[in-house]
Amino acid sequence: MAAPKRKPGTKAAKPAGSRILVVEARFYNDIADALLAGAAKALDDAQATWDIVTVPGSLEIVPAIAIAVDAAEKQKQPYDGVVALGCVIQGETFHFDIVAMQSARALLDFSVVRRLPCGNGILTTDNEAQAWARARLTEQDKGGDAARAVLALIAIKRQRAKR
Fold first, then answer.
1. Cα-flanking dihedrals φ and ψ of residue 19, to 5°?
2. Which pTM does this prediction carry?
3. Which of 119, 124, 127 is nearest to 153 (CA)?
4. Which residues pair with residue 20 across a beta bridge?
5. DSSP annotation of 60
6. Which one, of 11, 24, 156, 4, lies nearest residue 82 by Cα?
7. Most CB atoms closer than 10 Å: which of 11, 40, 52, 108?
8. Residue 150 forms beta bridges with which residues?
9. Rounded Cα gap, residues 127 and 138, in angstroms
10. Does the active-site annotation cover 71?
11. Straight-line distance from the first to the last Cα atom of the chain, in angstroms, rounded to the nearest whole number
12. Cβ contact 66:110 at 8 Å
């Protein structure tokens, strides 16, 4: 299994000792498994520790993040970042647009307001074939991309905190 290709001159961020929350929506179980496999590999490669919370669908991801992050902070075990994994496939109604836009907006808003790095691995596709192409570790590995994105943001946050 080949590693995902990166742009020349870039390398994966591996901020030491990162503690990550992964929240996965299980509406499409098999696709969720593929996304999680990619995220788990990326986090394990970076030697991060991670917890997982499972929710029914993508709209439940951000509320679950907020609940888990608050609980972790209260227990003095804060997370360094969050990976959101889910899949929204276009249907015949406007519901797709609501779920796709609102889950992305809520995740971005949460990340900015809380200054907590978040990797968005919520797929929004026209059909199941597109979802599989994006989810599979051997293809686009968007679960892994979301994990690598959060690790990169954690590295930036740590670097800036030293200044």
1. -110, 115
2. 0.90
3. 119
4. 50, 81
5. G
6. 24
7. 40
8. none
9. 19
10. no
11. 39
12. yes
Helix axes 61-74, 95-114, angle to 10 degrees: 20
Among candidate residues 3, 70, 71, 95, the one labeled active-site is: 95
Q: For residue 8, give both structure tokens.
A: 């020349």
Do 18 and 127 meet the contact criterion of CB atoms below 8 Å apart?
A: no
| Phi, psi of 139, deg, nearest 5 | -115, -110
Q: Which residue do the tokens 């597109």 mark? A: 130
Chain segment 81-134, per-residue pLDDT in tens: 999 999 999 988 888 889 999 999 999 999 999 999 999 999 999 999 999 999
Distance CA 161, CA 147 (A): 21
Domain 19-161 sits in which CATH superfamily? Lumazine/riboflavin synthase (3.40.50.960)
Q: How far apart are CA 66 and CA 98, in angstroms?
A: 20
What torsion, rounded to 10 degrees, do the Cα atoms 100, 15, 67, 101 define? -10
